[in-house]
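User: Sequence recovery, please. Input:
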């Protein structure tokens, strides 16, 4: 096995009471791709900061291979002291690094480099931070929620970019599809310790369930053994006391083991408060349109949404998803066309902006409005602590200021507020933001059981595939089209990914807005990415260096007496030549492939 580039040994960290990390071990070797999984608050981000050298643990050690470069992507990057996005990205380069990748990556991510970091949106800040850590092509990338605030187009670009690099990866993400496509091993941080399997995230959930089931069986056996030993203690023969002192000691040990057992955290209990059924027709839009500054955001869009439909709206940031959903729900008036609402509509909304929460208010105040100790859930009072526990908050957090909550805890709070209101129409704007995988599972089940209608915006492909019955996609120039099925079904029907215009028209029951005549858009040409261009430029020199190294070692082997007089040197030289030949063959093959690709692109 290759030596680790970075290694954490016996890491311990405690904030107050229960240890957050206890004897944690994590090692990452060259080109390994590890996803770090765990519930919100389990210590994933803290462990990644320890790996990056930003947090000092209470105990344990951190080792980084001398000369290895490490880059860490935080959830909230600090842009203080940087006048432009390009300046921030270039600050991530090492001494002697080529500055070209900084500008190249910003362009790939839709930025120019002259933006003021203080005025960036959440998505722009995330893209700038990604360029900052990717530009130096580090040996190790530590990425904390890299897909947060990114649209689907950028997420898919990032997948391809990371997949083509040779950097070792440690990923924290709640995007199942992203993790499944990139990871090769899984580290599960659970109750302060790490379990690891050398398989990607796609195998994690089944393995986790097996581990927890085995743990539950072991605890049941322990409980039965304690009961049997306690029975012996009460009714055993008194004359055997001296001989059974050891057995009594074992009973105390069993009790201590049971006392110290940290059981799994319960699952969130999400349930939407439902009102009376709406009419069969929920929303009917005919030829609606909206434009800003002469640019069509929505143009001549029509749709009929019926009770029980689950509609997903996807597209790049800035495409107009929120504008479309606001028109469909009556939050804003269309410039043209008409919208008709069905009978008995009761709507509950989840806004993606956590800023609507007062950071100084407490958890209880946010749920009750500061008026009492009860929450009205479906028109009935429920004690706030009981309702908090449904969303995995503890009683001790009742008076916690919102400013100290994690992103995942704020996400659960927003869900708790939205789901308490009686509804038969749920409007959810990026509901999966910051939620851990277990809470996502419960949210999916809740939406599956919900008897009303759901309209949601999401960039989580797996969530869309599991939840929605149709997907609405922007096709450019204000044109939006509805496709039957989930996200994967939409891609199949379109015949292209979201970066390209559709090559097919949707089939089935999905209703399609009549497109206006438009200029045909040429298909996007394949281009060499930065890594491919860089490899084409540097591989000839690498090949030349390897050939020189082989010639140098071969001169030593040409000595017919080398084996007899210095067997150790003979073995070392033979191994060095074999390794150099392998590297030379790999470099020559790679250069030939890239050269053929370059010629193919130039001729197309």
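Assistant: Recovered sequence (604 residues):
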């Amino acid at each position: 096995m290759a030596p680790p580039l970075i290694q954490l040994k016996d890491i311990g960290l405690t904030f107050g009471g229960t240890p957050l990390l206890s004897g944690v071990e994590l090692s990452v070797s060259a080109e390994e791709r590890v996803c770090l999984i765990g519930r919100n608050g389990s210590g994933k981000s803290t462990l990644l900061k320890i790996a990056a050298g930003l947090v000092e643990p209470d105990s344990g050690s951190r080792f980084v291979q001398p000369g290895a470069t490490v880059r860490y992507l935080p959830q909230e990057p600090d842009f203080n002291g940087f006048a432009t996005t390009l300046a921030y990205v270039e600050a991530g380069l090492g001494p002697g690094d080529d500055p070209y990748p900084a500008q190249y990556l910003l362009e790939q991510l839709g930025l120019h480099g002259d933006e003021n970091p203080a005025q960036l949106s959440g998505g722009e800040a995330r893209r700038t931070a990604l360029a900052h850590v990717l530009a130096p092509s580090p040996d190790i990338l530590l990425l904390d929620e890299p897909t947060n605030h990114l649209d689907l187009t950028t997420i898919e670009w990032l997948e391809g970019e990371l997949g083509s690099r040779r950097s070792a990866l440690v990923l924290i993400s709640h995007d199942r599809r992203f993790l499944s496509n990139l990871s090769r091993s899984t580290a599960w941080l659970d109750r302060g310790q790490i379990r690891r399997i050398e398989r990607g995230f796609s195998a994690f959930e089944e393995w986790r369930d097996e581990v927890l089931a085995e743990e539950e069986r072991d605890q049941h056996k322990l409980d039965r053994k304690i009961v049997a030993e306690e029975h012996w203690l009460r009714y055993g023969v008194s004359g055997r006391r001296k001989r059974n002192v050891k057995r009594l000691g074992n009973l105390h040990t069993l009790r201590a083991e049971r006392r110290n057992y940290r059981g799994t955290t319960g699952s969130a209990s999400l349930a939407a408060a439902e009102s009376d059924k709406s009419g069969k027709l929920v929303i009917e839009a005919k030829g609606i349109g909206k434009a800003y500054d002469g640019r069509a955001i929505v143009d001549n869009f029509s749709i009929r949404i019926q009770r029980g439909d689950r509609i997903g709206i996807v597209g790049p940031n800035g495409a107009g998803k929120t504008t479309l959903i606001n028109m469909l729900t009556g939050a804003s008036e269309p410039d043209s066309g008409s919208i008709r609402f069905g009978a008995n509509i009761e709507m509950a909304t989840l806004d993606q902006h956590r800023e609507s929460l007062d950071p100084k208010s407490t958890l209880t105040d946010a749920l009750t409005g500061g008026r009492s100790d009860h929450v009205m859930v479906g028109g009935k009072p429920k004690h706030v602590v009981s309702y908090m526990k449904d969303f995995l908050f503890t009683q001790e957090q009742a008076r916690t200021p919102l400013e100290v909550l994690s992103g995942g805890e704020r996400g659960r709070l927003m869900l708790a507020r939205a789901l308490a209101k009686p509804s038969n129409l749920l409007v959810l704007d990026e509901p999966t933001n910051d939620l851990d995988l277990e809470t996502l599972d419960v949210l999916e089940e809740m939406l599956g059981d919900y008897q009303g209608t759901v309209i949601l915006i999401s960039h989580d492909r797996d969530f869309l595939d599991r939840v929605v019955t149709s997907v609405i996609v922007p096709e450019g120039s204000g044109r939006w089209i509805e496709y039957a099925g989930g996200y994967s079904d939409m891609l199949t029907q379109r015949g292209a990914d979201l970066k390209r215009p559709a090559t097919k028209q949707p089939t089935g029951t999905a209703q399609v807005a009549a497109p206006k005549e438009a200029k045909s858009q040429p298909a996007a040409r394949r281009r060499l990415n930065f890594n491919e261009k860089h490899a084409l430029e540097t591989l000839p020199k690498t090949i030349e260096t390897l050939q020189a190294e082989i010639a140098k070692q071969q001169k030593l082997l040409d000595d017919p007496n080398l084996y007899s007089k210095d067997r150790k040197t003979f073995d070392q030289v033979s191994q060095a030549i074999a390794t150099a030949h392998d590297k030379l063959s790999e470099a020559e093959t790679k250069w030939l492939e890239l050269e053929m690709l370059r010629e193919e692109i130039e001729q197309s």
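The domain at 4-206 is CATH 3.40.50.300 (Rossmann fold).
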